[in-house]
Amino acid sequence: MKEITKETYINWYKDMLFWRKFEDKLAAVYIQQKVRGFLHLYNGQEAVLAGALHAMDLTKDKMITAYRNHVQPIGMGVDPRRVMAELYGKETGTSHGMGGSMHIFSKEHRFYGGHGIVGGQIPLGAGIAFGDKYKGNDAVTLTCFGDGAARQGSLHETFNMAMLWKLPVVFVVENNGYAMGTSVKRTANHEDIWKLGLGYDMPSKPVDGMNPVKVAEAMYEAIEHARKDGPYFLEVKTYRYRGHSMSDAQHYRTKDEVAEYKKIDPITQVLDVIKKEKYATDDEIKAWDKAVKDKVAECEKFAEESPYPDKQALYDMVYEQEDYPFVKHKL
Ligand SMILES: Cc1ncc(C[n+]2csc(CCOP(=O)(O)OP(=O)(O)O)c2C)c(N)n1
Ligand SMILES: [Mg+2]
Questions:
Q1: 248 alpha carbon to ligand 2 midpoint, in Å?
Q2: Range of the domain at 283
Q3: Which of the listed residues 5, 117, 194, 214 has the most CB atoms within 10 Å of its CB?
């Protein structure tokens, strides 16, 4: 794996802080009804992405995830202004404003969405990996999903096929403790989701998902295994600070529980190392914080000032086939 250096810590700090503040801004503009529909935020889970990106080969590896998907494409290289514009429903967005929050996508940056059907991306991720194996590409697909999605039957079908065909895929369950308001405890007789891989002889293990170093190390081992020998399953134990979506009253957990996780916040953990190792002065850190704030403001300005798509585009996006064999309805 690439060495974890002073620069890695500094980049992790800047990136994770930007992702956090980018989403804080989304929450604010959502309340102003500038962003509509659903909005699921990633606050608290940033170390999973930071560690994964460090371990991936960003010239070829791919990623697919669920609807909590705003910051992953940014990490993969998509212009954050275009991600914010997509949430605003603007023409300059990643899908010309037609996808919205749950459907960020960039083939160019090998980010395959953005999926609203819980667990729907699990077979799709294996399908992408199948395509790469078939074509002889050297790429690995990170297929990320939640603890709730891990309970879908499609996980088992996919694990079986992926192992049978030794597909270059890493399955990553981001166990943030809850599927909407349902805790992991209430969904199965044991809480070790990683053990689901063992029935398929898939190398599987749990990882501390609040620490990007731990994530990067585990991801690297998993990705390089997948590249040569086939699937790997990681259960990354993480936590989301905000509600499931913006309309969640969070009656299923206590404020104390959230506060406990904030004590091991990934951004704070990284900042503590930067300070302890004297990687930067207080003034330098202040300058980074200001740069992050400015970058978020730039994204907001870009989204605000971008035009909505032309009304005609509504019809351009609809599937049409003139000779479709409609069956006449008989009364
Ligand atoms: C097939 C399907 N069933 C139910 C839903 C409603 N739903 C949306 S998110 C969600 C919870 C998923 O939780 P988890 O997989 O843990 O992901 P997290 O939101 O925690 O990231 C549910 C049940 C859905 N979108 N799709
Ligand atoms: Mg969850």
A1: 14
A2: 6-316
A3: 194
